[in-house]
Design brief:
By secondary structure, the protein is mainly alpha-helical. Among the domains are: 2-219, no CATH class; 373-455. The chain contains 22 helices and four strands. It has helices spanning 14-27, 40-68, 94-121, 129-148, 156-169, 173-194, 198-221, 225-239, 243-256, 260-276, 280-293, 298-307, 311-321, 326-339, 343-350, 360-372, 376-390, 393-405, 409-421, 427-432, 437-440, 443-449; strands at residues 2-5, 8-12, 73-78, 81-86. The protein has a four-stranded mixed β-sheet with strand order 1-2-3-4. α3 packs antiparallel against α5 (156-169), α5 (156-169) runs antiparallel to α6 (173-194) and α10 (260-276) packs antiparallel against α11 (280-293). The radius of gyration is 32 Å and the shape is flat. The relative contact order is 0.04. The structure holds zinc ion. Zinc ion is lined by residues 58, 62, 104, 148, 156.
Length: 455
């Protein structure tokens, strides 16, 4: 489920609802000890909106704070709660990050405290639905707010801890934040285990694992850690086709990176930006530098060779890249196949496991080009592939044309029948297509033709 709220894109995953239902089920009271039993449906009807708004308001707290610091946040609710992300071109200062991280729990603590006051003053009967609603408001808002303040990454408290350490220790502080989170997490795992709180132990174990992975990544990146944000921003600019901005950011990273993989990623972005901006010479030069030090991303190599007019050399890397970036690669690959008349190769790949990555329309384009080039065998196979996917009568008609051109009248008749059954009804094509001339001279034709309405 996705929608926009106050201009923020919000996405709610399946697991959020599943967990919310489960927690609501746990809260249905047994109705023993003399208290009146609450209707389970009413309990759910009250619980679900409270849980949903509780987690959502928490994230909105983060989102409004982040917007105030010039970011464009988006919200996601999932099985583990919620998450507010922003694509930060303007990096936030440690103080701003502390405030954004605190804003979420503060909303929850505020709402929870208000519900506590209401429970104190309002005339709700013990064991009533009104009392249940107020208790749930406290439980969700206050509980979720306080829980998130535990100083373990990636909880809000952990984010505060990391930002605070960064303002004191500068670069390299994140490693210490991971270490502190790790030790605290292990301590809490032991404590909850001793109390038989197994669900909490499992969740904390997950956090401990995440921090262990974070620490590993931090070790590997070393001094290049701050450059990774630049790299991510460069990639985002490239994806939104802001080529100059992407180049400026990637150039900084390429010049300063000490880790080869960080530097090569930046150089790839540079080459892509040149290429997509239409500066083929610079793209070629950058790619030459890349190829001297290692392997070049196949999609880049293929697209560059195609742009240089070397379509036959572009096919191999493009075929390699097709499964990874189908929407970018497929049209270029089709272009290269047509330009080099590699229709047999195209037909082979269309029948393979990755053939579905070529769109129907691109497949038809290939079939027409093969037909026009006189490659009727390949044209027939290509349209056959397309027909199996579309079930469109016109595609079957084109298979028939290819067979007719190959003088295989039996196959041509078979495919014309298939075309008719699949809804093909363009009698003008039947009567005029020169491919079918040999068939029209046969006695079979008149009986076949009479099955179509219109003379
Ligand atoms: Zn939060």
């Amino acid at each position: 489920m996705s929608f926009r709220l106050f201009g923020f894109p919000v996405r709610v995953g399946f697991w959020f609802f599943a967990i919310a239902l489960y927690l609501g089920y746990l809260r249905v009271p047994a109705g023993t000890q003399g208290a009146p039993s609450l209707d389970a449906w009413w309990v759910m009807a009250i619980w679900l909106p409270i849980m949903f708004t509780g987690v959502l308001f928490h994230e909105l707290g983060h989102a409004f704070a982040a917007r105030w610091f010039g970011q464009e946040p988006s919200i996601e609710l999932h099985g583990m709660g919620g998450f507010t992300a922003w694509s930060s071109l303007v990096p936030l200062s440690p103080l701003a990050r502390v405030l954004v991280s605190l804003a979420g729990p503060l909303v929850g603590v505020g709402l929870g405290a208000a519900a506590m006051v209401a429970l104190w003053w309002a005339p709700v009967a013990p064991g009533s639905l009104g009392e249940f609603a107020l208790q749930s408001l406290i439980w969700v808002n206050l509980g979720w707010g306080v829980l998130n303040l535990i100083p373990i990454l990636p909880l809000d408290g952990g984010q505060v801890l990391a930002a605070a350490m960064e303002s004191v220790l500068g670069q390299g502080a994140r490693r210490w934040a991971y270490l502190v989170s790790l030790f605290l997490g292990v301590g809490l795992v032991a404590a909850t285990l001793a109390q038989n709180m197994f669900v909490a132990t499992a969740l904390l174990g997950l956090l401990v694992f995440q921090n262990y992975r974070g620490l590993q990544l931090e070790r590997r990146l070393g001094a290049d850690r701050p450059l990774v944000d630049f790299l991510r921003a460069a990639q985002a600019q490239l994806d939104s086709r802001n080529f100059q901005e992407a180049q400026q950011l990637a150039q900084v990273v390429a010049a300063q990176a000490k880790q080869p993989d960080v530097r090569r990623h930046a150089q790839h972005i540079l080459a892509w930006a040149w290429l997509l901006d239409g500066n083929i010479e610079q793209a070629e030069e950058q790619t030459r530098v890349l190829s001297q030090q290692g392997e070049v991303e196949p999609a880049l190599l293929g697209a560059l060779r195609l742009a240089l007019g070397r379509a036959s050399q572009a096919i191999e890397p493009l075929e390699q890249a097709l499964p990874h970036r189908p929407e970018f690669v497929a049209p270029r690959l089709v272009h290269a196949w047509i330009e080099t008349a590699a229709f047999r190769r195209a037909s082979e790949l269309l029948s393979s496991a990755i053939g579905h990555m070529i769109s129907h329309d691109a497949g038809r384009q290939l079939g027409v080009a093969a037909h026009d080039a006189g490659e009727f065998q390949a044209a027939g196979e290509i349209f056959e592939r397309v027909f199996y996917r579309t079930g469109d009568g016109t595609d079957a008609f084109n298979v028939a044309c290819a067979h007719s051109c190959l003088s295989d009248e039996e196959k041509a008749r078979e495919w014309l029948n298939r075309a008719r059954k699949a809804g093909f009804h363009e009698v003008s094509l039947l009567d005029a297509d020169p491919d079918l001339a040999p068939l029209r001279a046969t006695s079979w034709w008149s009986s076949f033709r009479s099955r179509f309405s219109g003379v």
